[in-house]
From TrEMBL:
Keywords (A to Z) from UniProt: Membrane, Polyamine biosynthesis, Transmembrane, Transmembrane helix
Phylogenetic classification of the source organism: Bacteria, Pseudomonadati, Myxococcota, Myxococcia, Myxococcales
Protein name, entry field: Spermidine synthase
Top-level taxon of the source organism: Bacteria
PANTHER family in the record: THERMOSPERMINE SYNTHASE ACAULIS5
InterPro entries hit by this protein: SAM-dependent_MTases_sf
Transmembrane segments: 33-59, 71-91, 111-137, 149-172, 178-197, 217-238, 244-262, 274-292, 298-320, 332-356, 362-379, 386-405
Length: 666
């Protein structure tokens, strides 16, 4: 039994260690959007389903020695594909740039393909091992003991998931981590082959087995699907509207896995008498916050939404365990759980973006969970007083979730949803604002005298505004990140402006009827659609007098635009030694000045930091101007910062870590 447990834990550890690892590999290729992580979750859920289906077919359709042989063949093929990737790409798991997307078309499909080529077969083999070994063990011991292996495996999953951001990412380059994981996988293959070779495989007699009622299987799928959907919905909400910190991509998944550990270990941990009322309270708090236009406190929002997810997963998975089958149907049970997980992921990751224009998934699936609880409890409790109370209050909470889908009182002129998130054009009394989650991406006044006035982070008191105002000769200006095109407010007849923007929806809004910075410019600025770094790598040197890098204030940090290699690329596109790179480093949650300070020292650049306060017409902004020559610009003493006092890590394409840069005072 111990050898089985060690192999199952190792497989689970590798299964969830590779998820944030691969997320970090592909994140730069797709613009650093938080949707990359939720798409990764969807991919891994689908592969998990495939692995569970494989184990179910092996146990149900193959007899005796063929069960061992089939799994040994799969393990060998997985090891071969991993070694092949290392030979072809130089490092396993990390593909060459030939797979990097060069257009913004169908980013989700391209991302799923890249993930499959990198880790698809090894992940499939890992996913199939846990339920298959548990099914073999269940032929010798009772079902409860076999299911404890599932709880133990989820402990391995938690350790793998937490080890990456805490113990591995801050200290090791990406390629080293990829090699380490690959060696761990080969060790797993040897261990699993040894266990499989001596596994107590028993030939089954399918005709003698009991049949599963369709209603029981449907209940398993539903109770697995709703927590999975809420996992992705809460992840979306946290990274878009509460606190856009990349670490929060992992936290909901940790909560989700912990609920499996608790509920599958023993029935004593889950009791309806306290868990369901606690879920009602957190559901009401969650629904109340969803009705607010802006979270009153990021920390409060984090606690309420994570508390809601924890209780939702505990109740959903607790009720799932109450419906578990006997040992002969164990692989069918795990397959149904995996189907439910994949269905929940597909509904949020694929269906919702096509049918919903806002992030309403949390309200919808929160309400559906309440309905499911009412149905399950009504069936098991019957006409008891507790059963009637659960049904009544669960329906009330479901209605409150529906109410939370109503407008919070903000006048919304346009809403667009795509792979990169939800963009809203909101109308203020005297301006129009572009919002991406909680982050403002541009503002333009409606009245004619102020319509061409540069606003928010680009005001005349900002670092980039002061530099542009000080110039009298024609300028060639590049901009990474378009927003609503506010930078074009500084354009003069002889200037040329060239923007790089990865999100086509942003381009459409900037050129649309609600904002006119682009149309008002004396010469229409060029817009290059695609990832800025990829586009710049394909272009000849542009000879920019000013290159504005404004991609770090949003819901995630595209670290590939803030690496040593990226900085070298930016410098190659400047006209001369007096040309300037202007980096907008304002971010509520991440301190980026230490990273930029390290670049200044690494490349021997002169720097000027302008930290301007907010007022009614501008946002507080923090700009770092970098040049090979001293930057002659008069800055009030209260707006100037000394970059030399900051010290940070050297970010490269191989190593980036936000761990020591997070502003934890949420």
């Amino acid at each position: 039994m111990s050898r089985f447990a060690v192999t199952v834990v190792l497989s689970a550890f590798l299964l969830f260690l590779v998820q944030p690892l691969m997320g970090k590999v592909v994140l730069p290729w797709f613009g650093g959007a938080s949707a990359v992580w939720t798409t990764c979750l969807l991919f891994f859920q689908l592969m998990l389903l495939g692995g569970y289906a494989w184990s179910h077919l092996v146990v149900r359709r193959l007899r005796g020695e063929w069960q061992r042989r089939a799994h040994l063949i799969l393990l060998g093929f997985a090891a071969f594909t991993l070694v092949l990737g290392g030979v072809v790409w130089g490092t396993p798991l990390i593909p060459t740039v030939s797979l990097r997307p060069t257009t913004t078309d169908a980013p989700m499909g391209r991302l799923l393909l890249v993930l499959f080529l990198c880790v698809g077969v090894p992940y499939f083999a890992l996913a199939s091992t846990g339920p298959l070994l548990q099914a073999w063990v269940a032929q010798k011991v009772d079902t409860a003991k076999a299911m404890r292996l599932y709880a133990v495996s989820n402990i391995g999953s938690l350790v793998g998931l937490l080890a990456f951001p805490v113990l591995l990412e801050p200290f090791w380059p990406l390629r080293t981590l990829a090699w380490g994981w690959s060696l761990g996988f080969l060790l797993f293959v040897i261990s699993c082959a040894s266990v499989a070779w001596n596994a107590p495989v028993i030939a089954r007699e399918p005709d003698a087995e009991s049949k599963l009622p369709a209603s029981r299987v449907a209940s398993w799928v539903a109770l697995a699907a709703l927590p999975s959907a809420l996992l992705m919905a809460v992840t979306n909400h946290l990274t878009q509207d509460v606190a856009p910190i990349p670490f929060l991509w992992v936290l909901p998944l940790v909560i989700y896995l912990a609920s499996f550990v608790v509920t599958f270990d023993s029935e004593r941990w889950y009791r309806r008498g306290w868990a369901i009322p606690a879920l009602w309270l957190f559901s009401l708090g969650c629904a109340g916050m969803l009705m607010m236009p802006i979270e009153s406190s990021a920390l409060k929002g984090l606690v309420v939404h994570c508390g809601f997810l924890a209780l939702a997963c505990l109740v959903g998975h607790g009720e799932l365990v109450k419906l578990r089958p006997r040992g002969e149907h164990l692989t069918a049970f795990y397959l149904a759980v995996s189907v439910g997980g994949a269905v929940g992921g597909l509904l949020v990751g694929l269906v919702a973006p096509m049918v919903l224009r806002e992030y309403f998934e949390l309200q919808i699936f929160g309400g559906l969970l309440m309905v499911a609880i009412a149905v399950v409890v009504a069936r098991s409790e019957g006409p008891s007083k507790f059963g009637k109370l659960v049904v009544a209050l669960s329906v009330v909470v479901a209605i409150v979730f529906g109410w939370a889908m109503t407008s919070p009182g903000v006048t919304v002129l346009e809403t667009q949803r795509d792979f990169y998130g939800v963009l809203r054009v909101e109308k203020d009394p005297d301006a129009r604002v572009l919002m991406h989650g909680r982050i403002m991406h541009g503002l333009q006044f409606s009245d004619e005298p102020r319509r061409r006035q540069a606003t928010t982070y680009y005001s005349k008191q900002s670092g980039v505004g002061r530099w542009l105002d000080s110039k009298t000769t024609p300028l060639h200006v590049g901009g990474i990140g378009l927003g609503v095109g506010t930078l074009a407010a500084y354009a003069r007849p002889d200037d040329t402006y060239r923007f790089y923007e990865i999100n086509p929806t942003v381009v459409d809004i900037a050129r649309g009827p609600h904002f006119s910075f682009m149309r008002d410019a004396p010469k229409m600025p060029e817009v290059v659609l695609g990832d800025a770094r990829t586009m710049l790598e394909q272009e000849k040197p542009n000879a920019f007098d000013l290159l504005v890098v404004d991609a770090f204030s949003g819901d995630s940090i595209p670290t590939h635009l803030l690496s040593r290699e990226a900085m070298q690329l930016y410098l190659s596109h400047l006209r001369g030694p007096e040309s300037v790179i202007a980096m907008h480093v304002s971010n509520r949650y991440i301190l980026l000045l230490p990273v930029v300070a390290r670049f200044a020292r690494e490349f021997g650049l002169k720097s000027l930091v302008v930290d301007s306060d907010a007022n009614a017409e501008r946002s507080r902004s923090q700009w770092v101007l970098l040049s090979r020559e001293p930057i002659n610009l008069e800055i009030p003493a209260e707006d100037a910062l000394d970059l030399a006092k900051y010290s940070g890590p050297l970010w490269t394409d191989e190593f980036t870590s936000l761990w020591g840069l997070v502003k934890w005072g949420l």
